[in-house]
Amino acid sequence: MAKLVSKTYGEALFEAAVEDGMADSLLEEVEAVLEIFHSNEEYIKLLNHPKISVEEKHSLIDKAFQGNASGQLTGFFSTVVEKGRFAEVEDILEYFCEKVREYKKIGTAYVTSAAPLSEEEKKAVEKRLLDTTPYEAFRMNFSVDAGLIGGVVIRIGDRVVDSSIRTKLNSMAKELSKLQLA
């Protein structure tokens, strides 16, 4: 249900931003607001508190964002509060960001390797992804998992390329367990 809410509201914000020609500027604004929300979880809790009236919540939004954010984003927050969906605001904004990046052909890749990659290796991975995907740019996220033993796992959206030694060993073990000795 929460995923449906974030998609519905995120899609609406995206369509309005594209229609108004504000996709780029609103993306920057939303990314900044997300950072603020992540560092101020109490604000989200406050705007979700059942004993605070909708009018007071509107007032809190106006005080926090009036003059600091676009009218479109401030109005969007007011709508989300009005509909009682502020608990999902971070998911909504994350969905919006991903939607704008897709629109601009900017992919987000999560690369996990068994050992830290050098800058040269990171650039080679990014170049390979640019050559083999429809994206024009990537936001790269690198992490290390020694449990992979070797190789890399790359995730872009719901696609995963797993060339880790751990996965190959697990596959080999499954195949060997199927064999019957005569």
Give keywords:
182 residues, alpha+beta, Peroxidase, domain 1, 4-stranded mixed beta sheet, 14% strand
Mean pLDDT: 92
How much is the radius of gyration in Å? 22 Å
The number of helical runs is: 8
Spatial order of strands in the largest sheet: 2-1-3-4
**What is the terminal-to-terminal distance?**
53 Å
CATH first level of the largest domain: which class?
Mainly Alpha
Report helical residue fraction. 55-70%
Order of helices and strands: HHHHHHEHEEEH
**Which range does the strand content fall in?**
5-15%
* CATH architecture title of the largest domain: Orthogonal Bundle
Poorly predicted spans: none
Q: Which overall shape is indicated by the principal axes computed on the Cα atoms?
A: elongated
Instruction: Give the CATH superfamily of the largest domain.
Output: N-terminal domain of the delta subunit of the F1F0-ATP synthase
> Helix/strand-derived class?
alpha+beta
The beta-strand count equals 4
Tell me about the largest β-sheet: 4 strands, mixed
In total, the number of domains comes to: 2
* CATH topology type of the largest domain: Peroxidase, domain 1
